[in-house]
Amino acid sequence: CIASSSSTHPLYPAPFFHYPPSSCTPPFPSPTPLSSCTSLCTAPPLPLIHPLNKQPANGSGEGHAKPRKAFPVLGIDYTHVRIPFEISLWILLACLMKLGFHVIPSVSNIVPESCLLIVVGLLVGGLIKGVGEKPPILKSDIFFLFLLPPIILDAGYFLPLRQFTENLGTILIFAVVGTLWNAFFLGGLMYAVCQLGGPGLNHIGLLANLLFGSIISAVDPVAVLAVFEEIHINELLHILVFGESLLNDAVTVVLYHLFEEFANFEQVTIIDIILGFLSFFVVSLGGVFVGVIYGVIAAFTSRFTSHIRVIEPLFVFLYSYMAYLSAELFHLSGIMALIASGVVMRPYVEANISHKSHTTIKYFLKMWSSVSETLIFIFLGVSTVAGHHYWNWTFVISTLLFCLIARVLGVLVLTWFINKFRIVKLTPKDQFIIAYGGLRGAIAFSLCYLLDYKHFGMRDMFLTAIITVIFFTVFVQGMTIRPLVDLLAVKKKQETKRSINEEIHTQFLDHLLTGIEDICGHYGHHHWKDKLNRFNKKYVKKCLIAGERSKEPQLIAFYHKMEMKQAIELVESGGIGKIPSAVSTVSIQNINPKTLPVERILPALSKDKEEEIRKILRNNLQKTRQRLRSYNRHTLVADPYEEAWNQMLLRRQKARQLEQKMNNYLTVPAHKLDSPTMSRARIGSDPLAYEPKADSENLPIITIDPASPQSPESVDLMNEEPKGCGGLPPSPEEDEEGLVMRVKEPSSPGTDDVFTPGTGDSPSNQRMLRCLSDPGPRPEPEEGEPFIPKGQ
Predict the structure, then answer these.
(1) How far is the C-alpha of 371 from the C-alpha of 364, rounded, in Å?
(2) What positions does the domain Cation/H+ exchanger transmembrane occupy (predicted)?
(3) CB 3.0 to 4.6 Å from 377: which of 117, 303, 516, 590, for a disulfide?
């Protein structure tokens, strides 16, 4: 019932008035008296009274008159605005705290932001409790339905997909096997501690301890993001730890619901265990399937938003949130659904929406996730003060110790196994950072808060142990990981801007590795990635991307994105006043905003020139593999140049063998020169041995006169070529060597250059060629043979 004002307009008909519940009798006569407030809804309709015959509304006539009071100039109704007012105050407090930490860099450089926010929550909770009020507690429904989805959506939408897919196997092993190991190892040891811990812990059974182990074993993505983004660790370690924290949600959800249900059973059978094992695949793959469906729908919807650009960002948020809620509806993994929807919709949505919508999505997600993360850590501190706690030294200290031991052992064993299959091995420093970065956070707290007191009477002790582990990992490990990274000299993230050059070489290496896998017959992830890209380009893009952008190559799309980004940066820097509309990014890259004159106008490239540049990029840099014929190792096309190339290789191989032989001949001592008398005796025994040959045109002709062997001057040298170059006198070294034998020029002009000596050969080459005609000392001639055989 809505109370009407004391003065009404006389023209309003009476049946439209609503009376307050305290007034059971209307101010005018009624044929049916109203005995209760409910009679307003069940009484017959009242007859219409003419406005002129109506009694005055101020109660001046006869009947029950309402006492008049002063008009309220100022009223207070806090209960009407209590909930939204307090929510706004908490958000304002979170933003002011975040602003204050970054204004004072000396504090934020030493203590992580998450630690400071928890301290603020402890102070605010203590202040509220000190004034006699009950501090608010972070309820699980508020956390899982309103605070967690923005953080996961921001992480999934802007996920570095290339690093994530290249390390997906390692991430899955850490997320699935590592989480199972931590849960069962911690649960089994805590059950042993409870059995040996005394009368206060004996009543805690095995299933309750396994449930506690599954809650506390999962790495928290919120805590990992808060700490790792501040220390700027390298991309490999960041994606390994953060990817593990995202994907272990499926294991945590399955184990949590599994042990929660088993705790209510009187007896657990083998069928229950098998069904629990199968539920892991249903929860994880079902969450991914739901996310993919909503991602495709979001991409298809964005195809038709070209005329209504204002609502484009809303589709991204709504479809992602619907994916999360749909997964939670069926007890599937909502985190997996959010990640899958963000990864699937992003490339198609960004191709359809405007640049302003893209900027809106980016900054709204960052703002939303930052505020949610701040509120989570503040409410962790407040809930610590407001909650009920039961401290047991044995249980709490054992939980903390076994969490650290399980994490270290799991990382060491799994890394030893993973390094057998990885090309880039994980070093001991990397293993230490992965083990040290296993932080726990609000997810474990909220899951434990969901436990029912009827079935889990030890919930307060579980909450106390979980809060202790969260505080230890966030404060101790979070505060010391930055000095340890600097001390161990772990490689940090390098802030470099992507360029066209990097994109070209990345695509080239992808095509090259895919071709190598095809030739070898090994179907690795490059092969399947290429198949997926072809299917995406041939079918999916045409359905989900509007206009000509569906046919645009990836390199050109990246080119347009870089061009727009650089133009916006130049305009925001204020260093450029007027940019012609046709200026290409090639000319913009060379602009220095600080030294550029204000009145200078940049030379604009023509449209034809820009189209020519783009055509060159399309034809030569993108479709390299598409222009080649399909091939495999069984149907290789014969290369026409292969035979000639093989012949050239054979000739060069023979040349190397001859060179080795000549080197061997150089090591043999030269033949000792005979005396003139002995020479004349050899020549006299066979005069025809020194007859000049027809093909020896460049060799000296020696004429022998056997009639006068006693005279050494009888040996006449005719047509002897001088050993010096250009008529110069021979050098002393050449004079000692004797006659030089020159090689005949090759007959074929197109032969290999190994066999074609130049005109200006060095003396060393000439000496090597001379060795071909001087094979070294011979054995002593037998009796009856001439001193110099014929044909030599």
Answers:
(1) 11
(2) 92-485
(3) 117
Alpha helices in 595-740 (DSSP H): 607-617, 642-666, 676-685, 732-737
Extract the tokens encoding 535: 């299917």
CB atoms within 10 A of CB 378: 25
Quote the distance between the C-alpha of residue 229 and its chain's center.
14
Burial degree of 727 (CB within 10 A; 0-12, 13-18, 19+): exposed
Round to whole Å and give the CA distance between 539 and 27.
73
pTM, to two decimals:
0.65
Terminal Cα distance for the chain, rounded: 134
Strands 716-718 and 701-703: antiparallel
- Interatomic CA distance for residues 353 and 631, integer angstroms: 39
Closest residue by Cα to residue 435 from 486, 395, 380, 484: 484
**3-state class (DSSP) for residue 540:** helix
Q: How many residues does the chain have?
A: 792
Could you tell me the two tokens for 375? 């509120």
> Running along the chain, 792 residues long, what does each successive block of 10 average in pLDDT?
39 40 41 40 48 48 59 81 91 89 79 90 92 87 93 92 91 94 94 85 88 91 88 89 90 89 84 90 94 96 92 95 95 93 94 91 93 92 88 92 95 95 91 92 90 83 93 92 89 75 84 88 84 89 82 72 75 57 42 44 62 69 47 52 74 84 62 62 61 50 49 44 45 46 46 46 52 51 47 44
